[in-house]
Amino acid sequence: MRSVTRTGTSLARLGLTEAWAEATLGELGWWAGDRPVAGAEPVMWSLARSPDPDLALRSAERLVAALTDRPAFDAALRADAALRGRLFGLLGSSTALGDHLITHPDRWHRLVGGTGPDPAGYSAALLTAVGADPDAPPAGCSDGGRATLTGPAAIEALRTAYRDELLVLAAADLAAVGEPELPVLEVDEVAAHLSDLAAAALQAAIAVAAAEAFPNSGDAGEGRLAVIAMGKCGGHELNYVSDVDVVFVAEPADARASKLAARMMRVAGEACFEVDANLRPEGRNGELVRTLDGHVSYYRRWAKTWEFQALLKARPIAGDPELGAAYLDAVAPMVWSAAERDDFVADVQAMRRRVEDHVKPEIAERELKLGRGGLRDVEFAVQLLQLVHGRTDEALRSPCTLEALAALSDGGYVARDDGANLAASYRFLRLLEHRLQLQKLRRTHLLPAADDTDALRWLARAARLRPDGRRDVVGVLLAEWTRNARRVRRLHEKLFYRPLLTAVSRLPADTARLSEPAAKARLAALGWASPEGALGHLRALTAGVSRAASIQHTLLPVLLEELSGSPDPDRGLLAYRRVSEALAATPWYLRLLRDEGLVVSRLMKLLGTSALVPDLLVRAPEVLRLLAAPSAGRADELTRDPAEVAASLRTAVARQQDPDTAAATARSTRRHEMLRVACADLLGELDTEQVCAALSSVWVAVLEATLASVQRALGPTDRPARIAVIGMGRLGGAELGYGSDADVLFVCEPVDGASDQEAVKYATTVAETVRRRLGAPSPDPALVVDADLRPEGRSGPLVRTLASYAAYYARWSEQWEAQALLRARPIAGDAGLGRRFVELIDPIRYPADGLSDAAVTEIRRIKSRVDAERLPRGADRSLHTKLGLGGLADVEWTVQLLQLQHAGDLPELRTTSTLEGLREAGEAGLLTPEDVAELAAGWTTATRARNAVMLVRGKPGDQLPRSGRELAAVAAALGYPAGGDSGVFLDDYRRVTRRTRAVVERVFYGW
């Protein structure tokens, strides 16, 4: 009794539930006692993975009983994984093909590893089966070959040959079910095979029909007949079980041609599949066969919209190939002009609704093909877009749904994510359809009922689904069906109903073009200072007859409307021309503008405001993609995490072996990130602290990566010194602006017995190389590594050892140097050395006894002298962001004075950040909350204004403009309404900084 229990448990684990399974397995020699026979374990596991192990075992038992070469079969089954996967995948999935294999047991040889479906051989195999010469001209030609078999013998031979090929194809399709490591035959590959096999079957059927209709070779006369596939067969995407839609064209279209066509349909229908000719002109009431002129005349005069939609998939597959090609050449121009018909779009949309309305409510939720979220949703959406846009874009003219969808996606007519998602869902739905039809080789599109768990489990396993830890395989199937149906429906509605009505680019080109007089008048009305100059840019953008020029014609009315609301439309249009010319060879550029309305709006705002953005954009065009709205479930790439950006930069530079290439990569990544941050800043996506942190993080990553690459180039081993880079000034405080230099100190330390001289020499070489490579001439904002804050300034050595720094600061340092060290922090190089440097300078910058009155007086004196001597001649002190009243220097010196006075006793003040220092000073009671707010507002306002000047001018500047378009652009960059009074910004700036200055005078100067 125990043995039976163990056996039952083991067999149940393998998925075998029938009581007879143990005895059957024993008879087959695969099982003994309570475990598989030695060597049969792979066989048992393949059997267990079959969609229905019980069905597969029953069929295997019948097959083995029918074999005449059982030993060879057993040996191959144990040794050949491909045979196991194909056999058990097939036997557990299709009773019809399993029966065919059992009826012809020698066919198992066609399932071994080295064989497989061969589309190139389909035609020869099926023609040979009916006794036709594969090398003769096709039947249907005036001198076409004919079969030697006719009647029931021909039908049986064709049926058997067709099922043989179908058996091999289905086994290959299902192989990965039984053996997961075998290659997966994708559903579109299977559909293409089935279409080729159907074409071969029709070629054989017409050869048989010719022999039956015209027993004597001269009876057919000189007539020619071509068979045109329509529907899924024409689209090279046939199902396992489907009618094959055809249209016949003949020369002449006489009784003999009709007889041959009708006989071919009967032969193919009895042997392989139904042949449906109801898509012919006038449908089932029309003539079965027409001449080429008859077809053309009908389509020109009488055809309805749906008939042109059907012709989109027309493809000659049998009969006279020249006549078939002539038919395709004749109807194609009518297909690709059908969208110009009145109410074309409405007709196609109404047709889809009629199809949907005919689905019975009780099965609508299980309908894979016709229901909401089904296959027809995908096909109608794709065909509508093809027919509209294929007029001018021949790349869209594929009759295959997935190929056409890929072309629509590549061409920008469908968003890439939408195209990929729609294709994935379409493949999933087609896979379920294929599996359902394979079971009994019956035409069906219905999922099993929700309460039929056995059928659903079989379907899920046949579709290679697996439990996911939360749900069993049935739950996974139902969840995937629901998810994909909803996604298809959502995308269908998006693509099928809206794009043609909302996207200006979808309009015919001539409806969106402006004549020159109309353009000039419009430009003047929209606020262009120089309409003539703008017209010159428009002529350059739309010159010629290229596709790009056509797209520009349709885009420009929208772009001009958007630019008119910017501070400087003239400069914006010039910038757009520069960007367009620079990106002329970038295939996605205009498509992105055409398909993403948010990109157009954002880009025009950026170009009409900033000189820096277009300068960077022509060298970092990929940032344009970030202007699109983020897709659902994805973070906005325009506001990436600075830590993620820095890690990506370091990784990219580390891949480069050559230090020059590494430095160029670092500069390129910095350019990309500076542009990204600038766009996010101007669009209001980042606040001031985030902008400064992002720019500082990029600069630190550039220094880190370049230092590492230089050290690698000088030798990965036997380095005589450790090197650390100490950030100073705004870099140390993580407060860099767009035009800031990187203030640093270089410190080294000898290793492995090297002398100080050797260490300094090596470290100096590294430091000079880093500065030289990063400071190489570039059209981007400069990358200046400034080491002037080092001991003795420019006169002192570029690099010192840690001990040398200690000696200098102990004997010679002045008060200003202690103040400068307040913002020192390690940013690159050896982390341990950086920590020791900080430990060295902490007692200097955070004196335990604070500052003497004399020291405070000295700091105030230095500040007054700096303000007086460094302010440019003629500068407006109220509008200078750095040295002006209430500007950056006022706030920073105030914070630094408080740190020098109190950080020795208050560790919370030991920060390199100005704003953090203010907050901590407030928490410590050194400043009132009101003072903190006023100082923070002044620093933030001045920093934002300084950054805005750089964005607008494209070059650094501390003085705010007093009037004109430049002031309007600065105000717009800071979020003030375009077209408003830019003087409001100046008033606001003066008011904020005046309040800040009042606090500075009281706290810093003690007035």
From TrEMBL:
Keywords: ATP-binding, Magnesium, Multifunctional enzyme, Nucleotide-binding, Nucleotidyltransferase, Transferase. Residues 1-500 are annotated as: Adenylyl removase. The lineage of its organism: Bacteria, Bacillati, Actinomycetota, Actinomycetes, Pseudonocardiales. Belongs to the GlnE family. Coiled coil: none annotated. Involved in the regulation of glutamine synthetase GlnA, a key enzyme in the process to assimilate ammonia. When cellular nitrogen levels are high, the C-terminal adenylyl transferase (AT) inactivates GlnA by covalent transfer of an adenylyl group from ATP to specific tyrosine residue of GlnA, thus reducing its activity. Conversely, when nitrogen levels are low, the N-terminal adenylyl removase (AR) activates GlnA by removing the adenylyl group by phosphorolysis, increasing its activity. It comes from Pseudonocardia petroleophila. Its EC number is 2.7.7.89, 2.7.7.42. GO terms for biological process: regulation of glutamine family amino acid metabolic process. InterPro entries: GlnE, GlnE_rpt_dom, NT_sf, PII_UdlTrfase/GS_AdlTrfase. Gene3D superfamilies: Beta Polymerase, domain 2 (3.30.460.10), Nucleotidyltransferases domain 2 (1.20.120.330). It catalyses: [glutamine synthetase]-L-tyrosine + ATP = [glutamine synthetase]-O(4)-(5'-adenylyl)-L-tyrosine + diphosphate; [glutamine synthetase]-O(4)-(5'-adenylyl)-L-tyrosine + phosphate = [glutamine synthetase]-L-tyrosine + ADP. Signal peptide: none annotated. Its cofactor is Mg(2+). It is an enzyme of class 2 (transferase). HAMAP family: GlnE. GO terms for cellular component: cytosol. GO terms for molecular function: [glutamate-ammonia-ligase] adenylyltransferase activity; [glutamine synthetase]-adenylyl-L-tyrosine phosphorylase activity; ATP binding; magnesium ion binding. The gene is glnE. Residues 351-496, 880-1004 form the PII-uridylyltransferase/Glutamine-synthetase adenylyltransferase domain. This is Bifunctional glutamine synthetase adenylyltransferase/adenylyl-removing enzyme. Residues 508-1007 are annotated as: Adenylyl transferase. NCBIfam families: PRK14109.1 (NF010707). Residues 153-328, 601-837 form the Glutamate-ammonia ligase adenylyltransferase repeated domain.
